Amino acid sequence: MKDLFREFDFTKVGYYQSMVESAGIKTFVRNRDLSGLAGEASIMPDLWPTLCVVQDEDYDRAMKIIQDSVMDNAGRSDIEVTCPACKETNPGNFDLCWSCGEAIVVPDEAG
Ligand SMILES: [Zn+2]
User: Fold this and answer.
1) Would you tell me which of 10, 53, 73, 94 could form a disulfide with 58, CB atoms 3.0–4.6 Å apart?
2) Is the pLDDT of residue 25 over 90?
3) What span, in angstroms and rounded, lies between the C-alpha atoms of 21 and 109?
């Protein structure tokens, strides 16, 4: 078990989990149930939801998937998009809904 990605916002952790798992890599999210914590937890990263790979040998591949996604989507992270299926709010750089996995259509601002 190796830590891949840690973020106070479970939305992102869940998104990366579905992306890494879709590549056939087994993952585990630690502190999944603590995402409702507020206050002090936000300055205590040890309590944040953490995405881990179950098999250490998958770590490099999983990390590459996450990094590629961050690079690809860096420009779209400042908008929010509502999932057409479940109505959850997703950051604009998500291709799939973190909650239900539905494809998200991002409004094309370029025109
Ligand atoms: Zn959804």
Assistant:
1) 53
2) yes
3) 30
Domain count, the chain: 1
- Distance (angstroms) between ligand 1 centre and the Cα of 45 equals 27
Q: Is residue 82 part of a domain?
A: no
Q: How far is the CA of 88 from the centre of ligand 1 (A)?
A: 6
How much distance in Å is there from the Cα of 42 to the middle of ligand 1?
25
Give the number of other CB atoms < 10 A from CB of residue 28: 13
Predicted model pTM:
0.61
Per residue in 40-81, pLDDT (tens digit) is 777 788 888 999 999 999 999 999 999 888 777 666 657 788
Rounded distance from Cα 56 to ligand 1 centre (Å): 30
